[in-house]
Design brief:
The chain is α/β, with parallel strands linked by helices and about 300 residues long. It has helices at about 15-25, 35-50, 65-70, 90-100, 115-125, 150-160, 180-185, 210-215, 225-235, 245-260, 265-285; strands at about 55-60, 80-85, 105-110, 130-140, 140, 145, 165-170, 185-190, 200-205, 285-290, 300-305. The protein has one domain: Aspartate Aminotransferase, domain 2. Helix content is about 40%, strand content about 15%. The longest helix has 21 residues, at about 265-285. The protein binds pyridoxal-5'-phosphate.
């Protein structure tokens, strides 16, 4: 990618120069026609990126705000949920769900290993009274570099018929193929500082039709992260609150760049880079943290050398 600083951390990721320069101007009024045009354009671009017909709502806040919004807008106090936890961000899901008084059953995976889809399948099939309201998991677990099988787990959730899938795609969106509508994912949370290639500060929640159905019964407290407010205003090309205006300039610039490259080329580039990185790491005699064939195209974690 053009002119990027080679910042080799999991995020914030490097920001292309043209995206950086798109931000270096005065903020404009967030209720102006000029800004509305940007909201309108980026809303369509976000649907393209998520491969969905549903609205993708933009929050001024970090990725965790989008995760929390996904939970509090679809669930109610005491709801039973399954939470995948095979790393630091799986742990975060558990903490957010518990903070809101959900009845959390944790499905653990060893660090460096993917979550086992069959564990989800078994518990969902045994839930004959349909008490499980959501399956919550991290797609690309940044802390270990493991990619979880979101497609298969989402399929099991669909077979259950009542639960929804809430996925943290903070690291994977914009790097990996996540066809939201085709796979039937109900909620996707993501953040600006990873695959979007813009600085931290915006996060995104895509809510499918089943997520909105769940929203109608959700009684968890919400105000700033009440997604109904965001839906109402996005339909008027606006925001409920004062958004990070200059980050919207960056969002428009980066999504336009991504559209020029095309989704398939973006995904292929990340797989190519993952393969090259993994080969280089192994060539240096270092060990990968993620189990063989379960490394994420978005992030490669390296096991520190033992002395
Ligand atoms: C997989 C994953 N989920 C959630 C987050 C949390 O995002 P934030 O730090 O933007 O709140 C991160 C950030 O690194 C992440 O990598």
């Amino acid at each position: 990618m053009q002119d990027k600083l080679n910042l080799m951390i999991p995020g914030p990721t490097p920001v292309p120069e043209n995206v950086l320069s798109s931000m270096s101007k005065h903020p404009i009024g967030h209720r102006s026609g000029e800004f509305q045009a940007i909201v309108k354009k980026t809303s369509e671009q976000l649907k393209w990126l998520h491969q969905t017909h549903s609205d993708v709502l933009t929050i001024t806040g970090s990725g965790t705000a989008a995760m929390e919004a996904g939970i509090i807008n679809t669930l109610s106090k005491g709801d039973k949920v399954l939470c995948g936890d095979n790393g630091k961000f799986g742990e975060r899901w558990v903490k957010v769900a518990q903070a809101y008084g959900l009845n959390v059953k944790v499905i653990k995976g060893d660090w460096g290993q993917p979550l086992d889809p069959n564990e989800f399948k078994k518990i969902l099939e045994e839930d004959r009274n349909k008490e499980i309201k959501a399956v919550i998991l991290t797609h690309s677990e940044t802390s270990t570099g493991v990619i979880n099988d979101l497609q298969t787990i989402t399929q099991y959730v669909q077979n259950h018929g009542k639960a929804i899938t809430i996925a943290d795609c903070v690291t994977s969106l914009g790097a990996c193929n996540i066809p939201m509508d085709k796979w039937g994912i109900d909620v996707i949370a993501s953040g600006s500082q990873k695959g979007y290639m813009i600085p931290p500060g915006l996060s995104f929640v895509a809510m499918g039709p089943r997520a909105w159905e769940a929203n109608a019964h959700s009684d968890l407290p919400k105000f700033y992260l009440d997604l109904k407010q965001y839906l109402k205003t996005v339909n008027k090309d606006s925001n409920p609150f004062t958004p990070a205006v200059n980050l919207y300039f960056a969002l428009e610039a980066s999504l336009t760049m991504m559209q020029k490259e095309g989704l398939n080329n973006i995904f292929k580039r990340h797989i190519r880079h993952k393969n090259a990185t993994q080969a280089g790491i192994k060539g240096m005699g270092l060990e990968l943290f993620a189990a063989e064939n379960h490394g994420s195209p978005a992030i490669t974690a390296v096991m520190p050398k033992k002395y």
